[in-house]
Amino acid sequence: MQLYDKDLLSVQEVRELVSAAKVAQTELSGHDQAYVDRIVKSIADAGVRNAERLGRMAWEDTGFGVPADKTIKNVFASRGVYEYIKDMKTVGVLEEDEGLGVTVIAVPMGVVAGLVPSTNPTSTAFYKAEIAVKAGNAIVFSPHPQAKRCIQESVKVIRQAIAEAGGNEDLVSCISIPTLQATDVLMHHPDTAMILATGGSAMVRAAYSSGTPAIGVGPGNGPAYIEKTADIALAVKRIMDSKTFDNGTICASEQSVICDDDMAPAVEAEMKKQGAYFLNDEEREQLGRFILRGDGTMNPQIVGKSVKVIAELAGLKNVPAETRVLVAKETGIGRGHPYSNEKLAPILAFFTAEDYVKVCERSCEILRYEGTGHTFSIHTKDPKMVEYFAARVPASRIVINTPSSLGGIGASTGLMPSLTLGCGAAGGSATSDNVGPMNLINKRYIAKGNLEIEAIRDAAPQCEHGICSYAENADMSKVDVEEIVRMIIKKLNEA
């Protein structure tokens, strides 16, 4: 029977792709670490070779960001990720403790469903392909329809690289007819072991509610605190560079700048010096009505656009041509305060507070409104300030003296290079990690018997009248569990 219905065709395609991926993944599971690593390296090399072409294609398809910055993202997501994960042990025995008699073996999850956003389409494809294959899995991509062409081209490059390395190219595949039904079937397919969801909140919620294990991420809305001891000029430079990188499409980028009240004049002057335009009250209201939709979500028309385009769309007439970032002074957080939301564009909110204690409270309020568990950045020379904020701010990543966008994804810090940033339980995510290969591996534990039931009973506390305790002269705080086990084994051997 010939199928003509688009939804039916897409569903049938998903079933075929998952079936082929399952076969390819089963084949991969029979190979050693060197074989897996050879495939991953080939993918990384192909990503570098095609970085510029695919970056421009992503920009042409979506209109988001800056072509040159997308090239950098592609290199980061291919070679940068590879350099970090290349020596990871992901096949066979991961750990072995002869003393405890415990061995840990890596077990691939199987077929991963990779949901790819339009903001970072080609880079996300390379990143997810590398970490999935490194962990011994196959991956089937569901592309954002707006970025279908560039994602499919990226997957074509990846498949060729796998074949050149002697692998089965069905380890990585992509839906060519993206529909909601296709994504739904992919997420619910019995052979889909894990969903790796990067994208909008609705899509992430759908992944978590599918019944299939999922790793998804929440929105970023990170404040950047310029503390009293910071080099203001350098801090502003880092923030401006970060917020303009690919026109702010990285979710870890700064969404607001916050400083002490008495520092505001100096910070504002430096920001203006480096290309920031502070909106007057009328302009702030005008742009504020444009950047959010009626339901309170971000207007997609601003995503990844330049200041010039945003100003034209919002009808702002007096923004200088050389402006790099639009800045709005904000006093409130939540509904009615649009600049307190995530803005994946070169737009910043500007907050001030009485002192670092109030700044911390305001930062926490911002993140709890939107961005819980994501990223917070601080510019300071005082380690005690870092300790203070790290103990209180509800963020999984605290990045110090670095552009937040690049620091959060691990480009300018030692974090795992990643384009999927977990927000932890507080942010509705299954992990707080920068997601990598180890998040896509199951661990199988092999444990040898050390104790017989008699020894376990002998080690139990004395119980009288329903209250159990060890002998009064037994200082259990000074005896660790391993020592107790060794003592019991010795007793058994003597017996």
Topology (elements, then pairings):
Elements: H1 6-28, H2 33-49, H3 51-62, H4 67-85, E1 92-97, E2 102-108, E3 111-116, H5 121-134, E4 138-143, H6 148-164, E5 172-174, H7 180-188, E6 192-197, H8 201-208, E7 214-216, E8 223-226, H9 232-244, E9 256-260, H10 264-273, E10 276-278, H11 281-291, H12 307-314, E11 325-329, E12 347-353, H13 356-369, E13 373-379, H14 383-390, E14 395-400, H15 404-408, E15 441-447, H16 453-458, E16 462-464, E17 467-469, H17 481-494
Parallel strand pairs: 3-4, 3-6, 4-5, 6-7, 8-9, 8-13, 9-12, 10-11, 11-12, 13-14
Antiparallel strand pairs: 1-2, 2-15, 16-17
Helix pairs in contact: 1-7, 2-4, 2-5, 2-6, 3-4, 3-6, 4-5, 5-6, 9-10
Features:
18% strand; 495 residues; single chain; globular; five-stranded parallel sheet; alpha/beta; 17 helices; 17 strands
